[in-house]
Sequence to fold (161 residues):
Amino acid sequence: MKSKASFYFSLPRLICRLFGCASDRSEDNSFEAHAGSVIIFTITYLFLFDLVRSQLVGWKIFPALVVGALAVFLFWVVVLYLNSFLIRALHLVGFFGETPDRHLHDVFTGTLITLFSIQLSISNSWMWWVGVLWLVFAILNLIAAAVLRLLDSPRPNTATG
Fold:
């Protein structure tokens, strides 16, 4: 009997399948949820730090780091609140009517984090690696989603009868 795993992201599902493990799409994987939240917070925090680092010298850097953490938290509270209005407006005009709100939130959040990562990837600091790693993960995850879709699609019957 094969073990069964549940993942939200496509890349771990594809890797699991390649190693002979059955895997399902699920939003119940707490490790993925926590890791995703930490990654989103970290990329946003580094993006903010990259924007203001030239003005931070000496002792000013320590209070700025603490204020930055609070600013990132408040930023995401506001962004998610505004996302809900955007999703409601899209539904009212007839777009994405069948798509669950949580999936649209994921798309908007992923897009914003990818834009932050692009900015980090063109910066001249060690934060370049964080941006590049996110971009590589996002591309691999999209490729894995396409491969899983191809693997799960019904095969046409080629036998002639």
About this structure: Helices lie at 10-18, 30-52, 61-92, 101-121, 128-152. The two ends are 35 Å apart (CA to CA). Strands lie at 4-7, 22-25. The mean pLDDT is 87.
